[in-house]
Design a protein that fits this description.
313 residues; alpha+beta; six-stranded antiparallel β-barrel; four-stranded antiparallel beta sheet; 3 helices; 17 strands; elongated
Length: 313
Amino acid sequence: VFTEPVVRQDLQLVVRSQGEVKPRREISISPQISGRISYVSPAFIDGGFVRRGDVLVRVDDADYQLAKVRAQSQVASAEQRLFREQAETELALQDLEDLGISDASPLARREPQLAEARANLDAAKSQLRDAELALERTIIRAPFEGRIRSKDVDVGQFVSTGQALGRMFGTDFAEVALPLTDAEMGRLGLTFAFEETDETPGPVVRLSADVAGQTRIWNARITRTAAAVDPQTRLISAIATVADPFGEGASDGMPLAPGLFVSAEIEGRVLEDILIAPRDALRGKDQIFVADEDDQTLHIHTVSVIYSDDNGV
């Protein structure tokens, strides 16, 4: 009979899962105005890196420059009419005072005329601001730091409001949804409404994948759980997050790129002061044979199995 001692010690539970890497933020780049494209940034290509505020695309602004000039002219005319109306209102009030009339109608005091002139000036200024906004929108900038996933336009092409010019994703965080069973959630000490805080940090995750013929490792943390259980698999996903996956979060310079399929080892709860036996020593579901060296006999013991894997039970 081959025997092996049963060890009493603490055990770090590990849960394994798999998932696809996705960026936390991904958007479709589209213009708020229509026009012909006059400039496309060299960085606006598939795989290009862009920083927040970088110019991606310029739309020909000639028509919008003319619209701004017309709006400025309307503001100047409205200001001139307001100044004239203010002067006429002062003269009307002076005439009423000279005649001793104290109960003159608002029309005689030119109050509606003055209000209309002020409203016309406000409307002209609004049209000017609208023209300025349209002119500003001829320049399409990157809303955050990231990478270009695709480009669908080029110089000379006419684009309409809301038309997709391409897609980009942020490089600040990468996320992996890791599906877990209810039992695995218990091993990790997670709830359906878990969200990482300073007081309750999430479990540590070790992501791995074979890239360019070499196994790469990325360190992550569980930051939250999905909002609902998947109705098809009855699993709930824990979201593992990697900060700066193209910089400090990379694995020896290898970034955690979106679309990569990775394996995950999640550190769960620590079981304190438990007995660990070889996995092959378990008979059936809950029995082990204990060898008594003194009388050379085997005793059958029923045990409570807390956790088992390939290494032990």
